[in-house]
Each structure stands twice: as C-alpha cells, then as structure tokens.
Amino acid sequence: MENTLSTQQQAIIPIAAFAATGDLESLNRELNQGLDDGLTINEIKAVLVQTYAYAGFPRSLNALAEFMRVIEQRKSQGIDDQEGKRSQPLAQNYNARIQGEQNQTQLVGQPVTGALFEFSPEIDEYLKTHLFGDIFSRDVLSWQDREIATVSMLAAMTGTESQLKSHVNMSLNIQVSVQQLNQIQQILAEKVSLDASQKLQKILNP
C-alpha cells in the first residue's frame, strides 16, 4: 500500500472538487495545472465524465466544455498535451447490471443491500448499472484514482457526508492508505476550501 499520492493523483483532487461544485474559474486553473503535472487529456476527461454520477450532468457537461477551452488555448500557445490511452471498448458480452454488482461488491467488500434500495429499486439499478458498471468498468483510470476523485467531489459538495463516509471506506478497502486520505484532506485545505478539508477530516479522525 502506497503512503503518498503521485503527482498526477494530487492533481485530480482539485479538478474533481471544482468540477463537482461548478467553480469553472478555479477549475480552469487546476486543469492547466493538471496537464502541467502529467495528467493526460483522456485521464482528465474520465474524471470530468465521472462527475455526472455525483454532481449531475450539468456540472459534468460544463466542466468538459471548460476543458475543451483549456486545450484549445494551450494549443494556441504551442503546448502539445498528451492525449494518453483511450478507454478500451467493453466486452461484447458486457452486462452493466451484472458487472456493476460485481464491481460494487468488490469496492465495498460485501454485497450492498438495505431499506433504501428496497424502497427505491430504481436507484439501486442506476447505481449498479451506470456508476459501478459503466463508469467503474472503464480502464483509463484505476479504481484508486476514481475513489480519490470521488472523495474529493463529495468533500467539496454540501450535504454529502454519508456518501463521503461510504467512499472513504471503499477507498480503504481498495488499498488507498490512511496517509493518502490525509494527503487528500491537506490538498483540499490548500487548494479547495477549509470546509471540504474539515468534512473529510471529521470522518478520518472522528
């Protein structure tokens, strides 16, 4: 288990946070920094697409549009950013529900059930198929990278403490270390907001 985040993983944190909160001015700055720090265009796109599952399509679409502007501006300045590897097509026999349930169980460490999902089977279906199936089955980002992004998004948004706690536990379950989670908290304090940092800190140090 690693004790520190890579430079690229550190760059994911404010990108994910500002995409989720819709702060496009700050996002623009961090997108430029992320590219300078070695994130590829496709890695950043994957983070911004994932934003829809936590903050909705409007925030995701706006963040992707802002990223398009950043790339064009950098091209006009003669900067040739790395596109990076593209997401590989999913298997022909891919079934989002089946794969999503497998991914969710592996991330959480056990099958996920509960009264909420009995009350609304539709939300259970969407979580399994769209989030844990379609998004987490894509290969441009590792699961650790995706959880770093998710924790950053949920810490930056309001009213998401329960989900943040769940994803902190998922992160630990897939070998994101306590030291790395503490590093996320420090970067949130430095680059995003004290509120986001403190929300994560309360979960890490109850």
Automatic annotation (TrEMBL):
Residues 3-65, 121-184 form the Carboxymuconolactone decarboxylase-like domain. One of its GO terms (molecular function) is peroxiredoxin activity. Pfam families: CMD. This is Carboxymuconolactone decarboxylase-like domain-containing protein. The lineage of its organism: Bacteria, Pseudomonadati, Pseudomonadota, Gammaproteobacteria, Moraxellales.
